[in-house]
Amino acid sequence: MKQRFALLLFVMAMLNMPAFSQQNHTLLVKAAQPTVAIQPTMWGIFFEDINLGADGGIYAELVKNRSFEFFKPMMGWAVNRKKFVEGEMLVINRGNEDTRNPRFLRVTMNNAAKGDLGLTNEGFRGMGIKKGLRYDFSIMYRQPDAHTKLHLELIDTTKQVVGDTVLSLTEAGDSWHKAAVSFHARETVLKGKLNIWFEGNGTVDVDMISLFPGDTWKNRPGGMRADMVQWLAEMKPGFIRFPGGCIVEGFDLTNRYRWKNTVGPIEERQLMINRWNIEFPYRNAPDYFQTFGLGFFEYFQLAEDIGAEALPILNCGMACQFNSAEVVPMQAIDPYVQDALDLIEFANGDVSTKWGKVRANMGHPAPFNLKMMGVGNENWGPQYIERLKVFQAAIKAKYPNFKLICSSGTDPNGDRFDYLNGELRKLNADFIDEHYYRSPQWFLQNARRYDNYPRTGSKVFGGEYASHVDKTVGITRNTWLAALSEAAFMTSLERNADVVQMASYAPLFAHAEGWQWAPDLIWVNNLQSYGTPDYYVQKLFSLNKGSKVVPITLNNDVVAGQDSLYASACIDAATNELIIKLVNASDKPQNNTLLFDGVKKLAAKGKLTVMQAALTDVNSFDSPTNVVPVESTIAVKGKKIELNTTPYSFSVLRVKLE
């Protein structure tokens, strides 16, 4: 209660108004005066492989370190044996023979029976196992004689078997072969493990040991975790930005994200340490690597699945300036630029082109119709501008209509921002990517940020933003106060849709036991997932985007903080509806009269969706719907609607024009 009262006092002091007094307001909606168009890409999503977002998250692989390529080759694995025999399990490094996947495990059996010699994989903070669900196991193997059987077991935390089968490896010789088998689980387990018992005599080499649930998104083999994708699909985002922010840069250039290593056969995608493995000592993640089973092809496919534009971000020849600040010399920048040109060919090229053929061989002969990409992430300084100019010249020369998203650094103000904003506008950059991780107070106080921006020239992409409530950790950072302040700020983005044409909250996903950064939009464990209050705010804006802004005013001014009210309005040409978004960020109810000017007639009822909660309220695995939108109807009286808003609330009203 002390924390809640302190927050309440904070908000009241911030807004400098008396508590517990009710206000009456008349808001004028000029429905017949649509101004600027709202782009289909206005509200999108930002994906980064942080917080176990990919491996251990949306990429549904359950086996950790499936190809023994971690720095510690047996990390994630435990050897089970009745009797120790020297050299019975050896990690072999074939080096130059296979530089992308050099390691495999050689197992030597001495008339082994089930229970004599085996492996256990612990998964990513365990394996989520669902009763009755099919599990698909596969393995690459090589053996001189056809003699090996694998006894596969899913076990719970007490080592009880909850699903099992046998797989015979029937091929012999010097070549590698793939074997697969499916079986079903008999119980639901939050933190299961996989046992593999070897039966036979002699040696067998094993690699790419894999286990996937049968309920992946669209039932794709080796695909994505369906519940996590479903959260995204239900938002109907205009774009998906990938593969992230800081992992694009890497802590040095050897650790940068290279899209070409993420396409083609799974076994040929070269694993790399995830930079979040070592970034935060207080949230160590020594087992955090990128297998790239979720690679650029899968990102493009995901965008297509959920109806979003793809927005890849590529390294510009600069590593993270907070880490190594390493840059590639200008005379060596060409390969980085070529990577960008090749990516456009991979996404859009005819199947007769080099990279278009790679895409086609992966099962997608039709182009993905990529329209834009980002050059660099949160890079700054003259060194960034110098490199960006080379990218811009090369890409625009070949693809003049292709849009480039350009970095304005890490912060929304200060010398670095001012320098970049000025230089990028001189270059007539298509989009300037602004990031703001700030307090709720900042979001409320910056509701007029874009009102005086230039209406022509470079557009703004709010590429990463989230309201950070101080002195909290993990899930408890995703409070209603944070989401409410974001909603207030987003009304200003919508009002200035001619300036801000794209925006996305960040980060997207977080594993409850594997997170490095909070707050986050969606939290998961091995079996469950839920949307935060921030998620539902994002979803309400995305599903109620509209097509053109219409003015909404209070006392002849935009509604941007007067008596803690924040509002935007738009018209949806497809449904012929007016959409009003109204935030009451105060601790008191507000009586609001909406007057609609320039309309002949409104429907007798409107659809009202409201989110309201105490400032410290959060959603959780135990209470996933504690803070969610509630729908109702509201009466329309002629050309007027009485919309009374509760304290700390966000309302979305849709009313039909007749």
Can you put this structure into words, describing what you see?
This protein has 11 helices and 34 strands. Mean pLDDT is 95; it is low at 1-10 and 12-20. It has 658 residues and is of the alpha/beta class. Among the domains are: 2-39 and 549-656, Golgi alpha-mannosidase II (Immunoglobulin-like, Sandwich); 77-213, Sandwich (Jelly Rolls). 49% of the residues are buried. Helix 5 (334-348) crosses helix 6 and helix 10 packs parallel to helix 11 (533-543). Strands 3, 4, 5, 6, 7, 8, 9, 10, 11 and 12 form a 10-stranded antiparallel β-sheet that branches. The protein has an 8-stranded parallel β-barrel with strand order 2-13-16-17-18-19-20-21, surrounded by 5 helices. Strands 25-28-29-34-31-32 form a 6-stranded antiparallel β-sheet, covered by helices on one side. Helix content is 19%, strand content 32%. The chain is globular and about 85 Å long. Keywords: Glycoprotein, Hydrolase, Signal. It catalyses: Hydrolysis of terminal non-reducing alpha-L-arabinofuranoside residues in alpha-L-arabinosides. GO terms for molecular function: alpha-L-arabinofuranosidase activity. It is an enzyme of class 3 (hydrolase). It comes from Niastella vici.
